[in-house]
Amino acid sequence: MDKIMVTGANGHYGRGVLKALLNNGLEKRNIYAMIRDKTKASELQSLGIHVVFGDYDDYDSLLKAFSGIDRLLFVSGSDVRNRTIQHKLVVKAAKNAGVKHILYTSQLHKSDHRDSPIYFIIKSHLATETAIMNSGMNFTILRNALYMDMLPEFLGKKVVEDGIFLPAGQGKIAFTLRSEMAETAAVILRSQGHKNKVYEISGSSISFTEIAQKISEIKGHNITYLSPDPKVFINAAVKKGAPRMLIKMLAGFAQAARIGELDSESSHMEKLLGRKPAQVNDFLQQIYS
């Protein structure tokens, strides 16, 4: 049986993949979790799996961690500024350690152009995908949609009182549950037929107009949706005390949605899971009822 490793194993997504592997009967002795912080090993160790240490900034630690691993789920890092350099180190270490098949969590997108509103996010993913495809290792690229779990961040804490205020126009986003994305990655890790493929891991798409209509239905009164100019949105949010970096990121994703960058009609996830992914309307019902 192949030895499987998940990086970023202390994160919600990484833990979700590990638990999905265990829930589907994969033997604990064949599962490896890589973490950066040694003080946070206890929860994973309690699962009975192997826990190893590796840092995306430390090539030698990565080479040691990946030694003997057959299938590697490479969870993308969160350091956007340094991510391209870090990721190339990961790919180099995986190749030199003899990893046979690498899976990578990329970002759902339609355009590779520099003028994309989310180029600042996807440029490191594009560089990583290229490095992986040129490495000679078998690969599977998971172009993950935006987490449905983050939808309340887009809507704001006072959405019921103030409505939705985002520069997304009538664009749609394929919001998808993080837990189901993790489950999908686990399916790919423990099955065959995924070599050298690119999958869009996404649920069904929805607009903020439709989201406003659904929350209106749940709450029993009208929830407005206004799509302002991006600069107006950023200035208004910052004036209310929101962190500028977070708001610029939300604005970028909203503008990307406006031009169709985050929409998806892919059936990849449904076929891999063997069922339809969770719907945004059901998620909204749970959150706002």
TrEMBL record:
One Pfam short name: NmrA
Coiled coil regions in record: none
Recorded superkingdom: Bacteria
InterPro entries per UniProt: NAD(P)-bd_dom_sf, NmrA-like, NmrA-type_oxidoreductase
Signal sequence, renumbered to the chain: none
Domain NmrA-like: 2-284
Name under which the protein is recorded: NAD(P)H-binding protein
Native species: Flavobacterium hydrocarbonoxydans
Organism taxonomic ancestry: Bacteria, Pseudomonadati, Bacteroidota, Flavobacteriia, Flavobacteriales
